[in-house]
Write a structure and sequence with these properties.
Elements lengths: L2 E5 L4 H12 L3 E6 L10 E5 L5 H8 L6 E4 L11 H22 L3 E7 L22 H15 L5 E7 L1 E3 L7 H9 L3 E5 L8 E3 H13 L4 E4 L8 H12 L4 E5 L1 H13 L7 H8 L7 H7 L7 H14 L1 H5 L16 H6 L2
Parallel strand pairs: 1-2, 1-4, 2-3, 4-5, 5-6, 6-10, 7-9, 8-11
Helix pairs in contact: 2-3, 3-4, 7-11
Organism: Methylobacterium haplocladii
Protein name: NAD-dependent epimerase/dehydratase domain-containing protein
Amino acid sequence: MAQVLVTGGSGFLGSLLVRELLDRGHAVTNIDLLPCGQRHPNLDSIVGDIRDRALLDRLMAGRRHQVVFHCAALLAHGSLKERELWSANVEGTRTLAAAVAGAGIPSLVYISSNCLWGQGFDRPVREDDAPAPCEIYGASKWEGEKILADHAGNFRSTIIRSPTIMDEGRLGLLAILFEFIAEGRRVWVVGDGSHRYQFIYARDMIAAMLLAWERGTHGVFGIGSDNVDTMRGTFAHVIAQSGSGARIGCLPKAPTILAMKAAHALRVSPLGPYHYRMIAADFVFDTTRIKAELGWRPTLTNSEMLLRAYRYYAANRAEIAARQDVSAHRRSADMGVIRLLKWVS
């Protein structure tokens, strides 16, 4: 049994990771701004802030943690102020890294993001492609990577750059798409929907995180599904398999992106600058390195994992609508001005 520290273990990915670690017989310490819904004799879950160095030192003292899985991050959703997001994601990572170094913990696994880039790519994105974030969340993740690089002599850090993480229970902005499908409305793609945007199955992500720790790796890895279908093809699969009467419609690309940017500037849309790429541009990680160095392989395609997430939403829609005090990925995002599009769909 290993002692493991998880930050953000009450969130979507973190809670699945905590459950897997407990199932494997490990003792888990979780720190999160939100309470944890899990109970287990080997789980010590603390409501707290990773910017609190004194708290981190107390949690790490005498426990001989073998690894830290750093999943905690605030998202650029809702009314969250940019300075709070930056403080939580950047200063939180800085404080955590210093505490890990001080406690002599040998390994840290950090979840980074494909939001390190604001533009699409006409080829798979490699680990040596220079990050160029276009908004604060991506910039905060890039800053976190640089903080960990500064601690290269203190502990091993594995950075996994992740696309959208998908599984049963993943909601957030996806709940808007799922609502359109559940109600049999027109599901819109931008342009002809032929762009390819990669997802990652949460269980595949967790498998990679555990392999990174177990094999003592150090470095940066892109991760994602194989055989990435077009967004139109992915949506069509979910619609067909769910029995929904939804149809796929096309929006003209240039005017739609312009309207999205205007809505974001007016703060009436949940979609930010990095979402424009998901909606209208190609983005796929090259997963050659993570497969070669960790022996990792994905198990589900985009279409398969999105269907799982939709079926969960459809089966739990009423309960989801009533949720409070859960992470952003476990509740439905506010539709904002997109509700106007729903009315004409």
